[in-house]
Write a structure and sequence with these properties.
alpha+beta; two-stranded antiparallel sheet; 15 helices; 9 strands
């Protein structure tokens, strides 16, 4: 049984959610540069280009021991199989169990309410191989199951070695235990299967617990206790299924093979149900986030407008103060209008009620209009300049939608700019496309945030620690509009050195 985190990458804090049965879901990750070196295998290239983090360095001795133990065991298996080769029927049965285990490992089943994540049914077939055959078959099935799946997923060599080693050693221990218990009645066989499942589980979880102890530099008992608690339910399910499989196999292998169909149906149904629940949770999260963000963002301008209006109504003011308060009302009313407009646009895009009218327009003229309008409410400490090709071709897109994208990008640059910042809007032709860019020298975007920067409601400063608010809808709207106009949008940024948002659209002659 393999519990897997549902997200593709884990931070160090997220390692508190353990993986089960030897699959370290993103605990050993590739985090640095990858270079294209000629005539060099991809896995060598990946290994040499990826630095080892301090956490992984602490775990390397354990990884080396587990890998060496697995290699030693596999050498013993090869020697034993050469001396005493299995019968043809044994080979066919082992291949059937191996194929089932590989499929089960490749497509883990999510179990609702289990913190370990997704659970692989591969343990059922590995334990069955140990009870039905012997330690040699169990070890080979365990090793090939994990190695095949991990290589297919293009994992790092160090991860493949550890995960395959864990499965191999756990299967070997399970096979040795099955051999020591011997054969007997159906009741004895079922009890032996439970014992063998427990041995596999203990070895597997023990090795994983030691790995997490190294990675997180935590006490061994604390880590093992947390791992055991989070994997008890998957273990109970896997042990029960293993007993059923072995019992049916003892009566007839054909009956056991017939069990595969219902298991596949149950697994697919469970995955579908879990995906549906995940989508519902995401919708609830977005709803709550939308309410929280919009109520917070609306409160500030409403309070400003209300306060200014009350002051104008109740007090005798001079002309200068009156003009100042009217300016507050004007600016905050505009801010309210933009917030409501963003919400309406996001709703229209979500419900596919926005269809761009693709036409032909002059990009130079469009940028001049946008920049002139932005200068009207630009902060005095921020400069806005333009850099364009002399003869830019006409663009095949919706001019009004492109204006909105540029306005959103410029407003976003102003929002995250520092004092005396410079913003540059540029336009140039790249092959048969026209590239619009908005560059600022503001706060910049951390690398880990750049992949999510165009997500709905995503904000760099959700707690407003730097005093930057917003609904998190502006860049989402930009991406949706650009995608609808057959373009693409991206960001290049370095934290503390500013950002460049760029999007490309096809030319009218393309």
């Amino acid at each position: 049984m393999t519990g897997r985190p549902s997200t593709p990458t884990l931070s160090r804090e997220e390692l508190a959610q353990p993986a089960v049965c030897g699959v370290m879901e993103e605990t050993i990750t590739q985090t640095a540069r990858r270079y294209r070196l000629p005539r060099r295998p991809a896995w060598v290239e990946q290994t040499l280009a990826s630095p080892i983090s301090p956490e992984i360095s602490r775990a390397l001795p354990l990884i080396a021991v587990v890998s060496a133990g697995a290699v030693f065991f596999l050498v013993a298996v090869i020697w034993s199989l050469a001396v005493d080769p299995p019968k043809g029927s044994t080979t066919v049965g082992a291949l059937a169990l191996l194929g089932s285990a590989v499929i089960a490992e490749a497509f883990p089943v999510p179990i609702e309410g289990v913190s370990a994540g997704r659970t692989s049914l591969a343990t059922v077939f590995i334990v069955a191989a140990a009870v039905i055959y012997d330690w040699r078959i169990a070890g080979v099935v365990g090793f090939l199951t994990m190695a095949t799946v991990e290589i297919g997923r293009r994992r790092a060599p160090v991860r493949i070695a550890f995960n395959a080693g864990v499965y191999t050693l756990a299967a070997a221990a399970a096979g040795a235990t099955a051999g020591a218990l011997g054969e007997g009645s159906l009741l004895v066989l079922c009890i032996a299967t439970l014992v063998v499942s427990t041995v596999f589980y203990v070895v597997n979880i023990g090795l994983l617990g030691l790995l997490f102890t190294r990675l997180r530099a935590q006490p061994v008992l604390q880590t093992l206790r947390g791992t055991l608690v989070s994997t008890t339910v998957p273990f109970a399910i896997m042990a029960s299924l293993a007993v059923i499989l072995v019992g049916l196999w003892d009566r007839s292998p054909y009956l056991a093979i017939a069990l595969v169909g219902p298991l596949v149906v149950i697994a697919l149904y469970q995955r579908r149900q879990h995906d549906t629940l995940d989508r519902l949770r995401e919708l609830d999260r977005l709803k709550d986030e939308f309410i929280a963000i919009t109520s917070h963002e609306l409160r500030t301008p409403l309070a400003s407008v209300y306060g200014a209006a009350m002051t104008l109504q109740r007090r005798e003011l001079g002309d200068e103060q009156r003009e100042s308060l009217l300016g507050v009302i004007y600016r905050e009313s505009g801010r309210l209008a933009r917030l409501v407009d963003q919400v309406l646009w996001a709703s229209r895009l979500e419900s596919a009620r926005v269809t761009p009218e693709i036409g032909s327009f002059d990009p130079v003229e469009l940028i001049d209009d946008v920049v002139a309008a932005e200068h009207a409410h630009l902060p005095p400490t921020v400069s806005l300049t333009v850099a364009m090709d002399d003869a830019a071709p006409r663009v095949a897109a919706d001019g009004e939608k492109v204006k909105q994208v540029l306005v959103n990008l410029i407003d976003n640059a102003v929002k995250y700019s520092t004092d005396s910042s410079a913003i540059e809007v540029s336009l140039r032709t790249v092959d048969d496309r026209v590239r619009f860019s908005v560059r600022d020298d503001g706060l910049g975007i951390p690398l880990v945030e750049q992949q999510r920067i165009f997500d709905k409601f995503h904000r760099l400063d959700p707690d407003m620690t730097r005093g930057v608010g917003g609904t998190g809808l502006g860049l989402y709207i930009c991406k949706q509009l650009v995608d609808q106009m057959n373009g693409r949008i991206w960001v290049a940024s370095q934290e503390g050195e500013g950002s460049t948002f760029a999007f490309e659209l096809p030319t009218a002659s393309a």
